[in-house]
Design brief:
Layout (H helix, E strand, L loop, with lengths): L2 H5 L10 H9 L2 E5 L4 E3 L8 E6 L2 E5 L6 E5 L4 E2 L12 E5 L3 E6 L4 H7 L1 H28 L1 H12 L9 H8 L4 E9 L2 H8 L1 H18 L4 E6 L2 E6 L5 H13 L16 E9 L2 H15 L5 E3 L5
Parallel strand pairs: 12-13
Antiparallel strand pairs: 1-8, 2-7, 3-6, 3-8, 4-5, 4-7, 9-11, 9-12, 10-11
Helix pairs in contact: 3-4, 7-8, 8-9
């Protein structure tokens, strides 16, 4: 098998002339692999370009599932980034059958560049061109599917009932380590609506609450935290106490008579407020303030220092 003819099929060497390919050929070697034999293993420092000449090579990711992430057939190559020292430290390459591969280079790529600077420059230029092309194609794919990506994110982070952000989005927000002023809101005696009028009435009440909370400060981050509890997160310089009063007053104007067949006509809420880095400790402290007024009958606000 002529390694030079194989090299001509590799895009990385497409700009090289015959004499340059002859030099590349001198730094290549064939390797035969038996079925299930490893070409490289997890955490191995594999810095070679690999061209499959016969059989097939599978790449597996590290982990308990040993997941197949790629499969290469004859005339396909992989490992371009390995030449630059970017290795797949969490991957393993295994022959799925009796296979043969052509490996380049037989010395370190740094030494090859030192000895053959002009050829090395052409190879690196082609490598960068390939990477640039892949980035453009990826961006194009994302752009073409932006609507789908947007819908996927919406499905992941949106509460289906209320249309507000969900608990999962809250978990993502916790990772940002940013400061917010927040309010934790819980409707008073909500259980009575469910018990007296049924869960459909309860759901409709939660929807009305969510719409009212969002309308009070449209630019805030509105989260259905869990069950009948909501979080409103605003910039740290927001007058959160004033906003909480606005929300409390707006909730008091909600007429749920049509939802409950007239059995219950209005609702109130308990609200806790606070400011700081958005973390679980902040949420818990504001949550406790909310509970302090909830257990006293509700329809009130607890600010920092109130307990």
């Amino acid at each position: 098998m002529d390694s030079k003819e194989i090299l001509k099929t590799v895009q990385l060497f497409s700009s090289l002339n015959d004499s340059e390919l002859n030099i590349i050929q001198n730094y290549c070697r064939f390797k035969e692999l038996k079925e299930n034999e490893k070409l490289f293993d997890y955490d191995e420092d594999f810095k070679l370009l690999c061209i499959v000449t016969a059989g097939s090579i599978a790449i597996y990711s590290n982990g308990s599932s040993n997941r197949l992430i790629a499969r290469y057939l004859p005339n396909e190559s992989f490992g371009e980034l390995n030449l630059c020292g970017i290795t797949l430290g969490n991957a393993q390459a295994v022959a799925l059958e009796q296979s043969s591969v052509l490996l380049f280079p037989s010395i370190s790529f740094e030494d090859f560049i030192t000895q053959h600077a002009n050829i090395g420059a052409k190879v690196i230029y082609q490598l960068l061109s390939n990477i640039s092309f892949r980035i453009r194609e990826t961006n194009k794919l994302i752009s073409q599917n932006y609507g789908w990506v947007s819908e996927l994110k919406k499905a992941i982070y949106t509460d289906r009932l209320t249309g507000l952000y969900n608990r999962q989005y809250c978990e993502e927000l916790l990772k940002e380590n940013r400061e917010y002023s927040i309010a934790v809101i819980k409707p008073d005696k909500f259980k009575a609506i469910n018990d007296t009028c049924g869960h459909k009435a309860g759901d409709a009440t939660l929807i009305a609450l969510a719409q009212t909370i969002r309308k009070a400060y449209p630019d805030a981050i509105h989260i259905r935290y869990r069950g009948d509890e909501f979080i409103v997160a605003t910039p740290p310089d927001t007058d959160i106490q004033s906003l909480a009063q606005t929300i409390l007053k707006a909730i008091g104007t909600i007429n749920i008579a049509s939802i409950t067949s007239g059995l219950i006509t209005s609702i109130t809420a308990s609200i806790g407020t606070g400011s700081g880095v958005f973390c679980q400790r902040l949420i818990d402290s504001v949550y406790e303030r909310m509970w302090s007024v909830y257990h006293k009958g509700g329809n009130s606000i607890a600010v920092e220092g109130d307990m």
